[in-house]
What we know:
Distance between the termini: 8 Å
Low-confidence stretches: 478-487
Radius of gyration: 22 Å
Helix content: over 70%
Number of strands: 0
Bound molecules: protoporphyrin IX containing FE, fe (ii) ion
Order of helices and strands: HHHHHHHHHHHHHHHH
Shape: globular
Structural class: mainly alpha
Amino acid sequence: MNDTQLTTAPMSAGQKVAMHYFVAAMVLFLAQLLFGMISGMQYLMPDLFFNQLDFSVTRMVHINAMVVWLLFGFMGAVYWLVEDEAQMELVGAKLAMINFWVLTSAVAVVVVVYLFVQIGPGELKSIWLINEGREYIEAPRWADFGIVVCVLVFFYNIAATFMKGKWSGISGVLVLDLVALAGLYLAGMYFTPNISVDQHWWWWVIHLWVEATWEVLVGCIMAWGLIKTLGASRRIVTTWLYIEVAMMFGSGILGLGHHYFWIGTPEYWLTVGGFFSALEPIPLVAMVVHAVYDSGRHGFKSSNHPALAWLIAHAFGNFFGAGVWGFMHTLPQINLYTHGTQWTPSHGHLAFFGAYATINIAIIYLAIQRARGNVWMSSGLADNGWKWKWSLALLNIGVLGMTMAMLIAGYEQSFVERALEGSTWSGYFQAQQAPWFVQSMHWRMIFGWVTSIGIVLLFWDMLTIGKKETRAIQAVSAPHEMAATPA
Ligand code: HEM
Ligand code: HEM
Ligand SMILES: [Fe+2]
């Protein structure tokens, strides 16, 4: 198979598995936005679906769907790149497909139970069967064990393929990172009735995932993505990857302390958490420099403009959402006022979307290009590319608009509830009735609609882009730099 020709050859085993993950991921993305829209409306109409579909449930499904679709997207991306990197067929393709269906069915069962059993006593039985009560990873215990087994199968498939084939700098980092990612999940399974101890371990999953292992994972995917979309030099991207990983772990691991300020942990965390988490934006700046450097060096020439555009959106989204929005409230002197206000979801939305949704969309565009037979997906598309350009714009403007609305609401809360009213119960309600807060909640909905139109266009584009195209992609790199295509 040659990179510069249209192909009618069937996809490889790993690519087929990846496509399944991508489809499931996109369906869950849609579900995430649907439940997000309902949660947002319930802020404005507290009676909406009351006792039928409560805010506690819509919000939970919104953020759980997000975690699961992003993880599905990452697994798909790794299955997509593993054969290309290892220059070897996936070792356990059948096992990978069974694994996909088991995992997807388990997710479906968990969600159905969330929707049917919304309220009731919290006891040992409910922890095992219904809901564990830990935000973002509420899945009941039976599902926890199932997830661990599925992740082990996934890990085996990836590591064994690299072991049978070739190792590279990128794959070495990737496999070590997958060990850490799976290991940390276990910290979220430890049950204790002491809420401080419980939160202490729960953050090992949440913070150490998104600010350490997920960041490294997307670093690997980005490195591979830049080679594929731009023909960036492998030597240069691998060097950047090592630097970024060192800085990411150097700051992110102890940066965990920014969640230990007010949960009953020792006071030294104020200093440790404040200091190390303040360093966390540095590797994110490095990533922007890295992406812009490579794009500039190759004159933004790529056969897949949507993928390249979303990769650039990732570099900037990660920097602003995680780096800038995270830094804003990470010092304890500031967090004292902002903690748990709308400031937090303002950062949460921009960071998760900017850092993780974007790169998943980019890799899915790369996969679509191959699915359509390696067609040209760059300038001069049949429909002028309006769909991908508009969905890119609407999704980014929508999320940025929601972020700004919540930031203003968060300012209002920090000011009224914390600074003026000294964190009193009445101050809490006063802040939520303040005009700027209420208006911001309306603005969040308006931008929520913008985001929703964006995703509809994105689906439409993904289903149609490149279908009428007859030109083939062109090789993007000098032969000595090019990674071989899958066997
Ligand atoms: C892509 C990476 C990141 C993602 C996806 C992310 C996401 C989130 C989310 C969703 C929360 C809310 C957690 C909750 O429900 O309580 C949160 C909290 C927080 N994040 Fe991040 N974050 C990222 C990186 C960062 C960075 C780099 C910093 C600091 C420089 C930071 C600082 C904070 C702080 C201080 C809080 C606590 C907010 C509070 O006190 O209420 N985050 N983050
Ligand atoms: C259609 C657009 C969306 C709407 C209307 C929406 C609405 C909401 C609402 C109302 C909440 C609950 C906030 C609270 O507890 O005060 C929430 C939480 C959250 N949403 Fe969205 N959302 C949307 C899209 C997204 C997207 C695209 C992402 C990321 C990819 C995302 C990630 C999150 C996260 C991480 C939280 C938890 C934040 C925290 O606890 O700090 N949402 N969303
Ligand atoms: Fe954190």
